[in-house]
Amino acid sequence: MALDDGHVLTIGVDLGGTSLRVAAYTPELGVLKSIAMRTRLEAGPIAVVDDMCDAIRLLIDEHRNGRTFSGIGVGSPGPLELPAGRLHHPPNLSGWDGFPLLGEMQKRLEQTVVLESDANAAALAEYALGLGKTLGIESLCMLTLGTGVGNGIVLNGKLWHGATGMGGEAGHMTIYPDGPSCGCGNNGCLEACASATAVVNAAERIIAAGKAPGLAALKSTGTSLSAQVLAKAALDGDLDAKEIYAQTGRALGICLAGLINILNLPLYVVGGGMANSWDLLSKSLFEELERRSYVYALTAQGRPAANGMPCGGTRVLPARLGAEAGLLGACILPLYSSDTA
Amino acid sequence: MALDDGHVLTIGVDLGGTSLRVAAYTPELGVLKSIAMRTRLEAGPIAVVDDMCDAIRLLIDEHRNGRTFSGIGVGSPGPLELPAGRLHHPPNLSGWDGFPLLGEMQKRLEQTVVLESDANAAALAEYALGLGKTLGIESLCMLTLGTGVGNGIVLNGKLWHGATGMGGEAGHMTIYPDGPSCGCGNNGCLEACASATAVVNAAERIIAAGKAPGLAALKSTGTSLSAQVLAKAALDGDLDAKEIYAQTGRALGICLAGLINILNLPLYVVGGGMANSWDLLSKSLFEELERRSYVYALTAQGRPAANGMPCGGTRVLPARLGAEAGLLGACILPLYSSDTA
Fold first, then answer.
1. Which of B248, B307, B239, B258 is CA-nearest to residue B278?
2. pLDDT, mean of residues B221-227
3. CA B189 – CA B165 distance, rounded (Å)
4. Distance CA B323, CA B318 (A)
5. Cβ of B263 under 8 Å from any chain A Cβ?
6. Same domain for A97 and A174?
7. Strand partners, B35
8. A135 touches chain B (CB under 8 A)
9. Domain assignment of residue A14, yes or no
């Protein structure tokens, strides 16, 4: 399914717990203009929706001239209930539990609004504008590793919603049943093992246990530990930081092995800020895939055919679009359809 | 999608490592006649295909009169590569690695042959003739717990194949990364934790460790331990046998929590011989679902609506069709379509 090449305008909104971005977009020209602002969480959801809708109206007025307006796409922190368009205990939007985001936007704008989780928006972007487009494939599963772990699944060109819009929550697949506690109430979720937060928590744990002298020294200089700081330490040769990333790749590999066995898609994409550390993650990740997914072992891209098995072409790759995936995905949401169980 | 009500005849084949069953079927009358025989594995795949095709021709000749013949469905042990219809290292059909089952059948029969894994055939039967029909739902995921663990996924009325026909292999999802070894080369797969074989292995391990006096006594009488024998011991009050089933339910719950988070379907079905022990499995299974799947916790069937969340209606139930699911599913395969990534 290709983007419409006509003179079409859409608006994309990337709603985050910290910042809010709104962009005007055409398939031919990409993002025409974007507006970024702080998300005024302290003012409550109605104020944030008002900010958002003001920016949307402004951009429509500025860029509509002569173009066909195709609607507004919104990527929001989840969990989201669809098609109702309501949030349920979103950990990154405190005070928004039960908020009918879609309804409040439609009431103000009287336009088509397509709401998806931010991870779904990123997956759609990677499908339509990133790796999916380059490789010419119609289905993919994307994990977005940031503060949390988001997931979006595209099956035959459509975002998979499941029955209540909550399909694609592999960030909360259990990897280690007795592993670190997760914000969702479970233990050992992928999010608790492979997010940027999890990497920092793992470092803090081994520092507290007196097992990571290099990282302890780094921390004692007043450096605030972050996933990036730890990645740099690993690249600079710190063995403990390397091991934290290797373990993160392992957790990611266990999760992806499960997803490959269940879905058997041609492409799995790892995005979000942590994907910048692909070289630190990938060795242990692929070791786990080979060991834990015979579907991967039989079908991995580039594997020599055995017993007449053609190359199934399963690929696991870092995302192509980077930090813009969420906003771009929101911009193209009105141009694609989704699929419900 | 309803079964065709016309005068249609199909043939279903349930190919197992031990026995081979072939049935003539009409949607109105069900199975008209079935033929069961030993699978002559020692004679090689060509001999088995000949046996199968002889029985198929016989049943077509006997039952075709006036009916429209709609094709032959075959449920086979996996892993299968589709659409090629070739087996890859099937653990229950030794000597069949790389065998082009579909091609060999089509060559002999010159008829439409639809080949699926036995677990996919069972899932289709449960969808079209079992719980899916009763509940009026269009998507489900079924786990078949027998000697191994099979899996079939129906999305919007179609079996999900994935890119190479290997979608729906949740039996090899990793549950405990350092758990018991699995025939696929991994550790801690669902199959290694929740199949009938896994239950017996767990009993043998604790007997060998001297921790299960009741089961050791049972074994010392010459009773061959099987999942059924252990289920009876549990129902008769043996605490160790009870604990083995509770742990099995726990592994199943961890797997299903992951599937619910990923797919968000309205129905998950547990079938195969182990489903007869549902009462021994279900308590720990549902404990894990509540803890490990916030999608389940938000959407479980019968849960009071919170924050405007309507009842999502996620159900996890034992299969309705029992041991005939595989054969019935094979019979209706020619009447349904499948979906590919």
1. B248
2. 95
3. 20
4. 12
5. yes
6. no
7. B22
8. no
9. yes
Residues of A in contact with B166 (CB under 8 A): 261, 264, 295, 298-299, 312
Q: Identify the burial level of A257 via C-beta atoms within 10 angstroms of its C-beta, where 0-12 means exposed, 13-18 middle and 19 or more buried.
A: buried
CATH number, domain of A103, equals 3.30.420.40
From the list A89, A173, A189, which residue is nearest B262 (CB)? A173
**Residues constituting chain B:** 341
**Which residue on chain A is closest to B340 by alpha carbon?**
A156
Closest-CA residue of B relative to A339 is B156
pLDDT score, position B304: 64
Rounded to 10 degrees, the C-alpha dihedral B250/B255/B259/B264 comes to 0
Quick one: which H or E segment has residue A314? none
DSSP summary character for residue A157: T
Q: Is the pLDDT of residue A310 over 70?
A: no
At A15 the three-state DSSP class reads strand
Q: Do A180 and A312 share a domain, yes or no?
A: yes
Nearest-angstrom CA–CA distance, A227 and A223: 12
For residue B340, being part of any structural domain is answered with no
Predicted confidence (pLDDT) per residue in B164-211, tens digit: 999 999 999 999 999 999 989 999 999 999 999 999 999 999 999 999
Of A294, A301, A314, A315, which to mutate for an interface test with B (greatest number of B Cβ within 10 Å)?
Answer: A294
If you write DSSP's letter for every residue of B47-79 in order, what string do you get? HHHHHHHHHHHHHHHHH-TTSEEEEEEEEE-S-
The structure tokens listed for B141 are 């995921």
**Pairwise CB contact (< 8 Å): A265 & B163:** yes
ipTM value: 0.94
B324 closest CA partner among B102, B62, B118, B40: B118
Please report which confidence band the pLDDT of residue B89 belongs to, taking 50, 70 and 90 as the band edges.
confident
**Shared domain check, A174 and A312:** yes
pLDDT computed for residue A305 by the predictor: 60
Answer yes or no: is pLDDT of B308 > 60: no
Residue B251 Cα distances to A251, A267, B176, B248, angstroms: 18, 28, 8, 5
How far lies A49's CA from each of A20, A59, A76, B73, B226, in Å? 10, 15, 12, 54, 61
Which residue range forms the structural domain that includes residue B210? 170-318
Partners of A336 in beta bridges: none
Distance from CA of B340 to the nearest CA of A (A): 8
What is the pLDDT at residue B1? 38
Interval B253-294: pLDDT, tens? 999 999 999 999 999 999 999 999 999 999 999 999 999 999
| Tokens linked to A305 | 């055919």
At B306 the pLDDT is 57
Q: Which of A166, A259, A306 has its CB closest to that of B295?
A: A166
Are residues B176 and B290 located together in one domain of the fold?
A: yes
**Do A115 and A101 touch, CB atoms closer than 8 A?**
yes
| Cα B267 to the center of its chain, rounded Å | 15
Over the Cα atoms of chain B, what is R_g? 21
- The alpha carbon of residue B133 is apart from the nearest alpha carbon of chain A, in Å, by 15
> In the A/B pair of chains, how many CB contacts fall below 8 A?
203
Distances (CA, A) of A313 to A267, A303, B301: 8, 8, 39
Instruction: For residue B39, give Cα distances in angstroms to A36, B103, B237, B242.
Output: 67, 19, 38, 35
Residue A306 — pLDDT band, cuts 50, 70, 90? low
Yes or no, beta carbons of A264 and B163 under 8 Å apart: yes
Residue position matching structure tokens 């081994």: A206
Residue A142: inside a domain: no
